[in-house]
């Protein structure tokens, strides 16, 4: 096992930093900061916390993840994927316990990185990820309809069917000016030319434009457009002082599950972000270092009133497209947000909730993969995992969806692996294999049967060896089992080989194993199979196994032999 290391990318790049890199990172950081500004506030409000919580998270987590992470381009901060989880925690356990959950998730993420579990994303199949991502997108869309249409709902329920029922009950309370403003913002975001979006991001234009409209016409015309000022009293100037997180021991054990969900989703999102960055830049990220940075960020931000953070794919892509070169770009983006918070915080009072709702609706639309035609191209089992995960995310919650989705995906995987495992009697059809392991040209004495296991010999397929117990001892007093085509041998497979030997011995039949590679031979030795069968019943290849079988056959069994020719 490799030793623990802590090597942020930042310290590698700071040694070779130059004026040209500074200029590229500064310009990119400014652009990313402009993109992050409306998103940070919108994500926070949708998560059930004040808008400044999103800004605090974007500033602190952005600094920490860029300074300590395992990539040079990834941007950290609050993301849309967390909205449903965080809002559910706030509704069920309260804001203070959300901070506790975030801190616990940070510890879990750091430990995952320290224990070198950075490849965790490989254990989450893409149908599962697509399913819960689409489900989260639907829920984000649903939760924003209240502010998009200006409905007079005090608080939207988090449960899907209750939310639908509430929206229907309040359908007649639509605020026309709010709806028109939100629709205009959404159309602007969706139709904004891509060539302009690089330097002037559409969410920022919608935010500023809608705020100017509100400042000019809201009060004079008594339109009653909800704003950050009317709902939250504005946002403070600058970062707050750190405060101790109150821990409610009565709920502590209950918080472990949501904290684990935050950690797992954060790991998936951040590592997906790192993979996207690698694909766009031909880099190679350090997954374990990235998880540790994510962990530290999530342990720090709760003390300042921030929420959970992870790698933000859209902001990372913006960073790369705008010429960012090193982790300094992410740091500059965070410093810009801090400057805006210090200088322009009073102006945030004019930001309309309708504009933020439009931004989040656009995020939901872009977040999901809505091309259902792809389902026809994939195996039905994968489509079922996607559909079930999507439905469970929407109807119940992400924790249930991931648990059941992983269980179903695991069952399907075991079934497929088991179907690929076969036990075949050696015939001329195997003549194309290597000489030492091939049956071609070799003598099979009477009374000897040779078989090859192909695929994985594990708990899902070990019972396929049972057919060897049905062989008549008078026809097969010695059974050779070739192992060189086994790709996986687990504890169940090892125990099955031991049981097979014992049952054959009870019937006066002998088992000879051959073809095990050095690693598999070590497994056999560690499991006690070498001692159980005896060194003279385990051979490196088929030729030596057949030679030994012929030598130990009873005399009457060697009257005739079979030579397989090509």
Q: Quick summary of this structure?
A:
The chain has 566 residues and is α/β, with parallel strands linked by helices. Helix content is 57%, strand content 8%.
Number of strands: 9
User: What overall geometry do the principal axes of the alpha carbons give?
Assistant: elongated
Could you say which structural class the secondary elements and strand pairing correspond to?
A: alpha/beta
Strand order of the largest sheet: 3-5-6-7-8
Radius of gyration: 31 Å
- Name the average pLDDT: 88
Total helical segments: 23
Ranges where pLDDT stays below 50 over 5 or more residues in a row are: 430-434, 558-566
Helix content: 55-70%
Summarize the biggest pleated sheet: 5 strands, mixed
Count of the domains: 2
Task: Classify the beta-strand content into a percent band.
Answer: 5-15%
The first-to-last residue Cα distance is 46 Å
List the helices and strands and how they pair.
Blueprint: H1 9-14, H2 19-46, H3 51-68, E1 76-77, H4 83-93, H5 95-114, H6 126-149, H7 160-169, H8 176-191, H9 194-197, H10 202-217, H11 228-232, H12 249-252, H13 256-281, H14 287-300, E2 310-311, H15 313-321, H16 328-344, H17 353-367, H18 380-395, H19 398-420, E3 422-425, E4 443-445, E5 447-457, E6 476-489, H20 491-506, E7 510-514, H21 518-526, H22 529-533, E8 538-539, H23 542-552, E9 561-563
Parallel strand pairs: 5-6, 6-7, 7-8
Antiparallel strand pairs: 1-2, 3-5, 4-9
How is this structure best described in words?
By secondary structure, the chain is of the alpha/beta class. It folds into two domains: 20-144 and 159-192 and 203-232 and 259-367, no CATH class; 422-563, Transcription Regulator spoIIAA (2-Layer Sandwich). It has helices at 9-14, 19-46, 51-68, 83-93, 95-114, 126-149, 160-169, 176-191, 194-197, 202-217, 228-232, 249-252, 256-281, 287-300, 313-321, 328-344, 353-367, 380-395, 398-420, 491-506, 518-526, 529-533, 542-552; strands at 76-77, 310-311, 422-425, 443-445, 447-457, 476-489, 510-514, 538-539, 561-563. The protein has a five-stranded mixed sheet, sandwiched between helices. The relative contact order is 0.15.
